[in-house]
């Protein structure tokens, strides 16, 4: 492995260091995808020591969440989904995601990500890798049913479609139905995807 | 109403007339949306007689299908969905849509529409109006269940999400699972949306 390069004269922890690391992370993720990007590679690209990246970000997942301006930390999503009775999985999933998307900030970030995903193959690859490793795979492992990964993937399709229809396309009556009705419609369908 | 204007010297049925009408239709739809656009308005915009538009296109719906290069005629979709036993609605819907999207031409057109919808508010409005009037509402009327329009709208969200995940984002394992498995997963979920 190559030793991290240091840009001469750059402050090791100046006010812009965190931002510079995030920019380097975005570029590294875009170039190599999620799986092939390491903290060390981001540090090298940013011209700082890997220890400094670790000072600001606990893990590669952290870096990804911040660099992509995700509306919510995917690991927290996985935790909140799995924490509760199994026969209420569908309802928890609907509540967690719609709760985030109904907030102004969450909705804005989600829309920005959707637009990037559709217009850029690199962002699409990055998001599918990140979502797969941080949400789909952990939830599938915890489920312990046959075809768990496909089941969780199908849940993802249903959520993606609701996001598109309600927030990006404005397809009625999905776009203006009240939140509780929408959660009530989604809950049994998501449950069927997972355990039916 | 204003009498249709004729551009002096334009051939009433020359080789480009059909194309010119389609261009005028696209512009009219984009400007006014689906509902507010009439055959008469498209004729006026194209500088031809309304009868000539009717010579090439039976109806406004026809014009829309051609102008937007839809992968399949939405009225045909509605017919094929409704034609058969009620407890197999979910399976027919999955088969009809995935059948179109798995074909090279259908998939290419669908992707182009998705990209336009996400990047242009006008196209989004146009598509949501067109899909609503030509598929969602007729199918909902035929269903005869409470909340039929919302139910059919929820089916649309599930289909939109599968299209996004499988064809535009490449989210695994949904992207590469075989078609029959995907239809088998979708059928009961779409059925639950409609009649559950």
Structure description:
Two copies of one chain form a homodimer. By secondary structure, chain A is an all-alpha fold. Helices cover 71% and strands 0% of the residues of chain A. In chain A, 41% of the residues are buried. Chains A and B meet through helix 7, helix 8, helix 9 and helix 10 of A and helix 7, helix 8, helix 9 and helix 10 of B.
Please identify, by name, the CATH architecture of the largest domain in chain A: Orthogonal Bundle
Q: Write down the Rg of chain A.
A: 19 Å
Oligomer: homodimer
Please tally the β strands of chain A and state the result. Answer: 0
Count of helical regions of chain A: 10
Share of residues in helices of chain A: over 70%
Please give the alpha-carbon distance between the first and last residues of chain A. 48 Å
Largest interface: chains, residues each: A-B, 42 and 42 residues
State the fourth-level CATH superfamily of the largest domain in chain A. Answer: Tetracycline Repressor, domain 2
Q: What is the element string of chain A, with H for helices and E for strands?
A: HHHHHHHHHH
Strand content of chain A: under 5%
């Amino acid at each position: 492995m190559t030793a991290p390069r240091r840009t001469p004269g750059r402050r090791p922890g100046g006010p812009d260091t965190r931002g510079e690391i995030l920019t380097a992370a975005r570029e590294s993720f875009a170039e190599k995808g999620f799986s092939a990007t390491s903290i060390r590679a981001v540090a090298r690209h940013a011209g700082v020591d890997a220890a400094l990246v670790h000072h600001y970000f606990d893990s590669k997942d952290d870096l990804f969440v911040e660099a992509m301006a995700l509306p919510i930390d995917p690991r927290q999503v996985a935790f909140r989904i799995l924490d509760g009775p199994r026969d209420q999985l569908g309802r928890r999933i609907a509540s967690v995601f719609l709760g985030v998307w109904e907030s102004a900030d969450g909705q804005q970030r989600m829309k920005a990500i959707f637009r990037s995903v559709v217009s850029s193959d690199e962002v699409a690859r990055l998001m599918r890798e990140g979502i797969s490793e941080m949400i789909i795979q952990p939830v599938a492992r915890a489920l312990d049913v046959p075809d768990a990964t496909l089941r969780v993937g199908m849940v993802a399709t249903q959520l993606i479609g609701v996001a598109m229809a309600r927030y990006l396309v404005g397809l009625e009556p999905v776009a203006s139905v009240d939140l509780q009705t929408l959660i009530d419609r989604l809950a049994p369908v998501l449950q069927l995807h997972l355990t039916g």
